[in-house]
Amino acid sequence: MLRVAFCAGADLTQGNVFGMYDDQKLKGENGMTASNAHRDQGGQVSLAIHRCRKPVIAAINGAAVGVGITMTLPMDIRIAAESAKVGFVFARRGIALEAVSSFFLPRVVGIGKALEWASTGRVFTAKEESASGLFNHVVPQTEVLNKALAIAAEIANNTSAVSTFMNKSLLWASQIDGQTPEAQHLLESKLIFWIGRQNDAAEGVMSFKEKRPPKFEMSPWSDLPEFFPFYQRINTERKQVSSKL
What we know:
With 245 residues, the protein is α/β, with parallel strands linked by helices. The chain has helices spanning 23-30, 34-37, 41-50, 67-70, 101-109, 111-120, 144-158, 161-173, 181-195, 199-209, and strands spanning 5-7, 57-60, 63-65, 77-81, 85-87, 123-125, 137-139. The chain folds into two domains: 5-9 and 19-150, 2-enoyl-CoA Hydratase, Chain A, domain 1 (Alpha-Beta Complex), CATH 3.90.226.10; 159-245, Lyase 2-enoyl-coa Hydratase, Chain  A, domain 2 (Orthogonal Bundle), CATH 1.10.12.10. Helices cover 40% and strands 10% of the residues. A four-stranded mixed beta sheet has the order 1-3-5-6. Helix 5 (101-109) packs across helix 6 and helix 8 packs antiparallel against helix 9 (181-195).
């Protein structure tokens, strides 16, 4: 029988892999308590995906449990097979949410659905929760990759990479606690003023008038406004703590 998995989560066959961290080693590295020194590896992956300047699309063709699903939450688009089995199973394993899922999950599906899944830890199929907002598209397994590639091609062939990244950043900035419609208005105003004077904006208008595909050339790595990022990022790297008072 063919078994397909996007990512079935942590390998639990060796016992409690969540308790494998050496408390004394962590503490000895920088003088911090072990709990403060530890960095969740799944969270580091999620933050890297969140900060990626290209759209990230998940093609979930099979089981995606635990970190297998939480690491997709910061991705831009999730395509899942109808039969894909998904589960936020942490409470059933006696552990806590990880991979920054406590931030991303309620923002993707709402606090009520996030609490239901985190509290029950149940495993469900993508088809069962196709209307939850977790998936952009739920399709037969044989169509998952083609659907993801078609969306990727639509983005690559028609949009400005800078514009796409700025729009993604705007939408996530709106999800920060305490952000207001007025603050978003000011941010959008500042950005549209800047981006409207860039080459990609001129090309976008000209290609429309000339009824031809656009040729956008700006890069999200080198052609960003001086006021990016739109919010202050916290440094998550471990720091050496002096023992001197």
